[in-house]
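Hello,

Our lab assistant flagged a job as stuck in the queue for most of the afternoon. It eventually completed. Since we weren't sure the result was trustworthy after the delay, we are filing this so someone can double-check. Below is the sequence as submitted and the structure that was eventually returned. Let us know if re-running is recommended.
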Amino acid sequence: MLSKNKIKFIQSLERKKARKEYGCFLAEGNKLVEDTIVAFSCKLLVATSEWLQAHPQVQADEVVEASPDEICRASLLSSPQDVIAVYEIPQYTVQPTSLSQQLVLALDTVQDPGNLGTIVRIADWYGIEHILCSPLCADLYNPKVVQATMGALARVQIHYVELVDFLPQIKAPIYGTFLDGENIYTQSLTPSGIIVMGNEGNGISPEIRSLVTHTLFLPSYPEGRATSESLNVAVATAVVCSEFRRPK
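-- returned structure --
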């Protein structure tokens, strides 16, 4: 049985203040929990008897068998599934020098939870293991971000850092997308480096632009045609990452 106090605790994790207080975040849904439970320390697992019987190997500090109705009352989703997991927020550390031979994403104030979650998923697809986020980016452990990652946060480490101080220490090419940049399809892109993606409305800030060593532009097709003003930041990230991973 799922108590009222546990329901209240689970729902409180929608708020950043509660996540910080408890040091925990929430994951819901069969696939998401299956992907993440092997990567994080599970403090509380709430699931139907059928789900628990189908997953006898799962480990958690506390397991609560609950009815579908109880899960519905605790869930933050519009269409709850069979399982809710509460994980301990991991504490990652990274040294700038360890990233110099990798392809890394740096997000400059990407504030939409759906965009951040999708970018984490894109990074996972393209084998990018680290994302650097400025402090004003959306919170990775916001339930909307967690859901949008589709489990990719189990394989990609996100670090909140002051980009203006951190990026120069990596000692790698720094790429950024701008309307006045060079056509990405005509450039020789390095296998390692930093890809900076900017805010949804304002793009890359002047402070971070001053650090960029290679400016890139994603042209519309055909070039010069009247078209949308810009691409969504997650879509643009996918295009840029795809071009970096294109076999040379």
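-- support follow-up --
The delay was a queue issue, not a problem with the job. The result is valid. Residues 4-88 form a domain with the 60s Ribosomal Protein L30; Chain: A; fold (CATH 3.30.1330.30). The CA atoms of residues 91 and 159 lie 9 Å apart.
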